[in-house]
Each structure stands twice: as structure tokens, then as C-alpha cells.
């Protein structure tokens, strides 16, 4: 494995942006529909589930790339030598945070999938009733904090990972380009975090307690 580590890292970096990063953005936009009310959120969920070959798209385009990125990412985090206490440079600190948020994101995503997607697969929750599930989570103070930490970790890991992707793939060459890409990716982190927090807060609305039929009239 070590002899091919360059290629494994390249694949890991690429999958972190395409398609895993795109999935995070799609997930953000879907959940942001909750800020418009339960009906808008249900309509978005139904639209996604109405896509052709949706299960194949999920397996090939999300779950397998996510599994590779997560498992290899844990391996990289385990192998990494974090010397942030000795060399407190900004990028060294970001490198350390990338590893920490990677582990936190892995744990959070696994738990989130268990609470949502797996329950749908087991038939315990209907897709269109995921708003109720999220309402139960968001109105629990402990789980709200867990979700807050999880979404901030996932968002930072993606945005800072995007900076690394641009460097490792030779897109941002030189200190100036890398400095500007830092500004852009950190701005993305702030904007995405605000949108995720707004979405999470929106699920606390009592209207999300109602079944999908009651909010859509269908």
C-alpha cells in the first residue's frame, strides 16, 4: 500500500471534493429548504427520491466514494505526525484541525446515517417524514449540540480540504494564490455553517411534528 500511497492520496483528495463535497453541498441545499417550512422540505425530499436510478446513484455516487474517503482518511489521520505544539504556524494548525474534524465528521456521519437513512431503509421512517425525525433531534438540547459540532466539523473539513485539493492538484501555485484560496475557502466555511445552523434551527419549529400529509395536503 505504501508504494502506491501517492495515488491513494490523490484519489482520496479527489473524492473528498467530487462527489463527496458535492453531496455535502446538495445536503445543505436540501436541508435549507426547511427554513421555508415543512412543505418545501418534503417537496425537496420527494424530488430527490423521484430521480431515476436513485439507489444506484446513492451507492455509486455517494456511499462507495464516502466509504473510501472516510476509511483512508482515518488511516492518514493515524499516520500523520501532528507537531502543532512545536510549530504553531497557521497551516500547521489547519493541518491538525483537518485531522481532528475528519475523525469527528466520520463519527457524526455514521451516527446521522443510522438515525435517518438506515431507519428509512428498515422501514421505520418514511422519506417524507424525515422532518419529524429531525424535529425530534433538533429539539433535544444535547443532540442539538452534537449536531452543531458535527455540521461545523463536516463543513470545515470540506472547505479546508478543498484548499488542500487545489494545492495538491496544482491549481493554486504559489503563496499568493494559496493565500487567496484560504480567504475563499474560509468564507465558504462561514456561509455554509450559517446555512446549516439555520436549517437545524428551522427543524425546531412545531410544524415539523406534523406528518407529511398534513403539511402538503397530499
Fold topology:
Layout lengths: L4 H13 L2 H13 L5 H12 L4 H26 L10 H26 L1 H5 L8 H9 L2 H28 L6 H28 L9 H5 L2
- Span of the ends, CA to CA: 54 Å
Reading the helices and strands in chain order gives: HHHHHHHHHH
Compute the average pLDDT: 90
The largest β sheet comes out as:
none
The fraction of residues assigned to DSSP E strands is under 5%
How many extended strands? 0
Strand-pairing-aware structural class: mainly alpha
Low-confidence stretches: none
Tally of individual helices: 10
Shape: globular
Helix content: over 70%
Radius of gyration: 19 Å
Summarize the model shown.
The chain has 218 residues and is an all-alpha fold.
Write a concise keyword list for the protein shown above.
single chain; 218 residues; mainly alpha; 10 helices; globular
Amino acid at each position: 500500500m505504501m508504494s502506491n500511497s501517492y495515488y491513494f492520496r490523490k484519489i482520496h483528495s479527489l473524492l473528498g471534493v467530487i462527489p463527496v463535497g458535492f453531496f455535502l453541498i446538495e445536503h445543505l441545499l436540501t436541508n435549507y429548504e426547511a427554513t421555508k417550512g415543512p412543505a418545501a422540505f418534503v417537496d425537496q425530499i420527494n424530488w430527490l427520491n423521484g430521480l431515476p436510478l436513485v439507489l444506484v446513484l446513492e451507492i455509486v455516487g455517494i456511499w462507495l466514494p464516502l466509504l473510501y474517503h472516510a476509511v483512508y482518511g482515518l488511516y492518514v489521520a493515524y499516520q500523520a505526525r501532528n507537531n502543532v505544539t512545536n510549530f504553531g504556524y497557521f497551516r500547521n494548525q489547519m493541518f491538525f484541525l483537518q485531522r481532528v474534524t475528519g475523525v469527528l465528521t466520520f463519527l457524526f456521519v455514521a451516527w446521522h446515517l443510522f438515525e435517518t437513512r438506515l431507519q428509512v431503509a428498515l422501514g421505520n421512517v418514511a422519506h417524507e417524514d424525515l422532518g419529524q425525525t429531525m424535529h425530534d433531534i433538533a429539539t433535544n438540547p444535547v443532540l442539538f449540540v452534537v449536531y452543531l459540532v458535527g455540521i461545523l466539523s463536516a463543513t470545515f473539513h470540506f472547505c479546508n480540504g478543498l484548499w488542500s485539493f487545489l494545492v495538491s492538484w496544482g491549481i493554486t501555485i504559489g503563496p499568493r494564490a494559496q493565500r487567496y484560496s484560504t480567504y475563499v475557502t474560509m468564507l465558504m466555511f462561514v456561509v455554509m455553517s450559517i446555512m446549516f445552523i439555520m436549517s437545524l434551527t428551522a427543524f425546531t419549529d412545531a410544524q415539523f411534528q406534523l406528518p407529511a400529509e398534513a403539511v402538503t395536503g397530499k
